[in-house]
Amino acid sequence: MTNFNELTNDFELVVLIACLVVGYLIKHSFNLVPNKYIPTILAILGACLNATVTGVSIAAVVYGALTGLTSTGMHQAFTKFIENADKKED
């Protein structure tokens, strides 16, 4: 049986994954949003999601915003990794 108290420790991971998915969808599906606004959108989304999941507090909002920005950095790092792997295969 799952201990739900342990699952609450991973809510920031859920926020990170949600921001990654939303960021990917914005970048690849909507041409109306310039790329320069995606980090701001994800910071706001992460702040809102984390405050919703963990409770409204200054720390939750700040950590959520950082999680949203982290998802942007992770996407960029993954993209660079894939591009370099493709170049090595040629």
Summed up, what is this model?
The chain is mainly alpha-helical and 90 residues long.
Write the layout of secondary structure elements.
Elements: H1 4-7, H2 11-29, H3 38-54, H4 58-89
Please give a structural write-up.
The protein contains 4 helices and no strands. It has 90 residues and is mostly helical. The mean pLDDT is 85.
Low-pLDDT segments: none
Q: What is the number of helical segments per DSSP (H or I, 4+ residues)?
A: 4
Globally, the shape reads globular
Radius of gyration: 15 Å
One letter per element, helices H and strands E, the order comes to: HHHH
Secondary-structure-derived class: mainly alpha
Number of strand segments: 0
Query: What percent strand?
Result: under 5%
Keywords:
single chain, 90 residues
